[in-house]
Every structure is written in C-alpha cells, then in structure tokens.
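From the pipeline queue, job 12 of 40. The input is one protein chain; the requested action is below.

Action: predict structure.
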Amino acid sequence: MKEITVVSGKGGTGKTSVTAALADTERELVLCDADVDAPDLHLLLDPKIAESHVFEGNWIASIDPEQCSACGLCMEYCRFDAIQTHGSEIPVIDPFKCEGCRLCERICPTKAISSERSKNNYWYVSGTRHGTMVHARMGPGEENSGKLVTRVRQKAKELAKLEKVAFVLTDGPPGTGCPAIAAVTGTDLVLLVIEPSRSSLHDAGRVADLLGQMNIEAVAIINKYDLHAPLTGEIEQFLKNKAITLVGKIPFDEQVVEAMVQAKSVTEFAPQSEASVALEGIWARIEQQLAKHRATAGEASSNSWRSIEQRPGKE
C-alpha cells in the first residue's frame, strides 16, 4: 500500500479537483481529506458518514465566580492578555485569546480556574462512490489541526490495510504550515499542483524547499498550463532545477467548471474531455514513478545484503 499526497503552495490551484479526478481513475484506494481547516473534497464525493468521532482540541479555561477572590494573579501572569475584568470585579477568560497553557489554573490560590478540552472538532469515516473516505471538520478558531491531520491519515492507512487496497490518496492542505507538514510526513509520494501564476510559482518554491529538507520524493503537474505560456515555461525550468519530475500538464477546460457545478470530478462528468485525458495519463505516470521507486528500493536492499555477505570473515 502506497500513500500519495496531493499538495499545493497556495489555495485555488485545483488540488482538490485533481484529487477527485484521480480517485475516479484509480478505484483501488482509500481517500483521505487532510485539509482539515478547510475541507471540500466532500463537495465532489458526497460521502455517507458511517462513523463520527470527537477530536479533542485545546484546553479551554474558565473561572468560577463563586470561588474567585479577585486577587488578579491570573491577569498578571497571563501572557496572552486573555483574562480581563471588563468593568466587573471578577475576571473573565476570553476563549479566543486563551492559548490553553493552563498557567492560570495552576497559580490560582482559590482553585477557581478549571480547564477542559474543546470538543468542537470531528473526524469521520464515510462511504463514497469511489470507496472509503476519512475526513474531518474543525470548529472555528480551533487549534491542533496538525494533530487532526495525523489522526485522519493514520485511520486511512489502517483502513487501506484492512481493505487490502493499493493506495491511500490524500488531499493535503496548501502551504507549508503545521497541517501541511503533518500531511506529507512519511508519505510515499507528493504530487505538487502548480498553476501558471506568479504567486503559485513562488509558493511552490517554498513547498519544494520543505520537501527537500524532509527528503520526500515529489512529482508535479501544471494545471491550466495554456493560460500563460511564458510562466508555464518558467515553472518547467523551476521543476528541472529542483529535480522534480513533471508528470503532466492539464489544459484549461470549461468542462471542469461544469463538472464542479454537478458535484462531480471532470473524469466522471466528461471522460473524453481534454482535462480528463490528461489526468488519465498523469495517473499512469504516477504509477510508473512509484514502480520505479519500488525497484530502486529493492535494488538498494539487495546490494546492502550482498555487502553484508561479502564482509571479511563471513563464512
């Protein structure tokens, strides 16, 4: 079982549309939406929820006014300015400013402050027309999205092994923050989606640097490549400089928009369209890349074993 994680440097490059189309191309997979802060893969796949689980978030502190002595220690020591009196004698904790460090709880002399974990986040196991999907939803202002990404990825891998499918296809978050790092750590292959815009090229550079530092193999596609030929040429040169294989270019295709209106991937809605044909070829080249990677890894393992066998003194 191999995990392929689809990422982009910025939002709006077509990452989720590409993920949905690849899911339609390869049926032996488990889907994972790791863009937990702004999930939208469900909009194209219409999942039917089979399991729902609470994911506990940050600690949230509150003050019991009947126990509070109004000593002011909590306000003095809070480094996030989250505790204010707002004109009253008893202070109140602003949940949007509170970082859940629980220092106020520990120093309160009357034990008037207590904390509990947020239960405003959920992760799900659902059925879709393309197979099992693991996805999540975070409440507004919630933290720990990186931990939630890790949880949904773990569950997706567990289900892939249980169902004995070949792939986990993960729709990762854009950017290079904590959720993105959690989405690519330990994945077998990253598919970087770039569009011919200056901002997309700039942010793809940041993603490429991150993947290089983490020693994660990546391939790339250029979406809507024909909208700006000179910039597409720059992107191709950038990928060569970064030693990232370009596995395909998707032309601008109005059928993609029509497919989204119908809540379908373009390969479902218009399988003979230019974008669909390009995506079919992209998936074939991704499989070739993974096969090449397996062969290289197998050869390295064999050479390593031979080197042990040939050590002096080996009988």
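Job complete. The chain is about 40% helix and 25% strand.
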